[in-house]
Amino acid sequence: MRTSLLYKIKEEERILPSKNLKGNEIIFILAFPDIYKYGLPNLGIQTLYKELYLRDDVAVDRYYTDEDQPFSFEYGFKLKDSDFIGISFQYEGIVLNAFKILKAGSIPLINLLREENDPIIIGGGPVANYNPLPLSLVCDVIVLGEAEEAIHKIIDSYKVYRNVKRKRMKFLQAVSQIEGIYVPCIHGFFQTGMVKQTSPVDINEHPAHSIFVTKNTVYEGRVFSIEVRRGCTQRCRFCYMGHRLKPPRTLRWETFKKIVDLAIDQCNVEIIKLFYEGLETRIVEHYLEYIIKKGGRVRIGSQRLEKLSKRIIEIAAISGQRKITVAPETSGRLRKVIGKHEIKDEEILEVVRISSLYGIPDFGLYFILAIPGETFEDLDKIADLIMKVRHQMNKLKNTDGRLEIGINPLYPKPFTPFQYVKLPSLKNIEDRFLYIVEKVKKEGFPVVISNDVVDEKVEKRQKDENENESLVKFETTVFHPISLLQPMISRGGLEIAFLLHYLHSKRFNTVSDLENLLNEFGINAAWYFEEYIDKYCPWKIQKTLISEDYLLKEYFKALNFISTDEECKLNCSQCFNRCIDISTTNYQGGMSNA
C-alpha cells in the first residue's frame, strides 16, 4: 500500500474500529468515483459502510480514485478479487470515473463481458436513481431508492449462491426480484414501470452520520456530518430531493443527541455540519443550540432565506463560520415558477447586515439560469441584487469580505415537474451568464470568474489583479463540458450508456471538444434540450412514489406563473392525496418525529 494512503488512514478519526477479519467474509468495496478529499465526507458511502461493518459475514472497505491503485483503501483487497464493488454516483461530473475504477482493477468495463468470478458492480446514488439507463452497461445491479435496507437483502441473496455453479447469473436472477433492484441483463431497457423503487427507510433506525473524520477533506477542519432531515417539504420544481425522497423524515431529538454526544465525547470532534433541507426554523435552532451547549461548533450550508433566523446566524458566527450563503435562485418574479416564495431584495440585504454585525465577512448567493419564462428583465434583477449586496457589504465597512456568486444552468432532473422543460442552447445560457457579469463589471466592482475550464495560471492572474477591495467572485459550470453532458445523462437512454463507454477514454476540456466527440459518435445533444412532453422518457423504467399527474400539473402551473399550494408544503409529511401514487408503497407515514 502506498505511503500517501497510509498517511491518510492514520489521520482519520474512526467511530468504528478496524475489524479483525476471519478470511471467509464477503468482500464489499464501497467506491467513490472521485479523489479522497471529496469522497471521504460523503454520507452515502459512510452510512452504507456502517451498515455493512455491523455484519459478521462482510469485510467492507473503501476506494477513491486518487492514485489508480488496484487495491482497496484500508485492507488492501485487490479490486479484482472482491465480491462486490458499490459505486456511488453523486453527480454527473464523476460518472466517467467509474470506468477508471474498473480499469484500475482489470475488470471488464461492460457488464455482459464479465466472467463468473468478476466482482458484481452495484450502482447507487442520485444520478443512478433518477435515471439508471445511462449506467446500465457499466453496472450489473442498480439500487433504485434508499439503500440502507436493500443492501442487506442483496448480501443475503448472494450468500445463497456464493458457492454454486453459475453463481453469477443465478444471483442476478434472484436479486432482480428484490424491491428497488434493477438488473439490466434481466429487466432490459424499455418497459415502463418495471422496477419499483425501494420503500422509504426509517432514518431513526438507520441514521446517517460520519463514521470517519479527518482534516484532509474539502471541509475546513475535522467536520462531523449528520443528516437531520431526509427529503424536503418545500417542493421546488427543479429539485430531485423534494420529490423523490418522500415522505420527508426528521431525526428524533433523542437520536440526534446521542449522535452529537458520540461525535463530541468519543471522537473529540469540534465542528458539526447538519443537513436539514426545509426544516422548521425552531427545530433547527433547537438542534444547533444543543451542539453549542456541548461545547461544539457548527457549520451551516446554503440556507432558505425564509428559514434563516438571526439566532442561526449568531450561532454560525460564534462557531467561527466565515460565510453565509442564501439561494434566491432567480428574480423575484420567477420564484413562483420554481415553486418558491417571492422574496424582496431588502430581506436579503437585512441578512447581509446581520451577518456583518456578527463578524461574518463573506456572503454567497446561488442562482439558476434558464428558468422557464426568463427574460433580460430577470437577468437585470439578478445583476441588480448582486450589486446591492456588494454595496451593502461596503456600506457596513466590510470591503474586504468576499461576495461569492454561484450561477449554473438549470438542467432537468427526472421525477420533478421540470423533467419536461425545454432548455435554451448552451451558447444562449453562456450569453446570459456573461450579460450578468458585464453589468456587475460596469458598476466598477472587480470581478473574478472561477470555473474548471479556466487555465489555472489565468485564474491566478485574475486573483492577483483583483486582490483589492469589493471583490465579486463568480463560480459557474456554464463553460464546462459537463453542462452539455448533464441533460444527456439525466434524460438519455441506452444510447447514453454506449456514449459514456465511448467517452471514458477521450480527452475533452471544453464544450467544443465534447461537441466534436459527439459528432464523431453520431449523437445530437440538442435533442436532450427539447421539451419532453411527447417524448419517450427512459427513466420511467422505474416506478416511484411520485404521481405522473402531479408532475404534469405542476409543470403547467410553472409555465403559467402559478405557485405550488402552500398547504401542500405545510402538510407534506402527512398527505398522500396530492403527489404520491399510493399503489407504489406500503409506507403508512409517521417518520417525521423531531
TrEMBL record:
Molecular function terms, GO-annotated: catalytic activity; iron-sulfur cluster binding; metal ion binding
Domain Radical SAM core: 218-446
S-adenosyl-L-methionine recorded as keyword: yes
Keyword Iron-sulfur in record: yes
Domain of life: Bacteria
Full protein name: Radical SAM domain protein
Pfam family, any one: Radical_SAM
Keywords: Iron, Iron-sulfur, Metal-binding, S-adenosyl-L-methionine
Species of provenance: Thermotoga petrophila (strain ATCC BAA-488 / DSM 13995 / JCM 10881 / RKU-1)
InterPro entries: Aldolase_TIM, Elp3/MiaA/NifB-like_rSAM, Radical_SAM_N2, rSAM, rSAM_sf
PANTHER family: RADICAL SAM DOMAIN PROTEIN, SLL1084 PROTEIN
Lineage: Bacteria, Thermotogati, Thermotogota, Thermotogae, Thermotogales
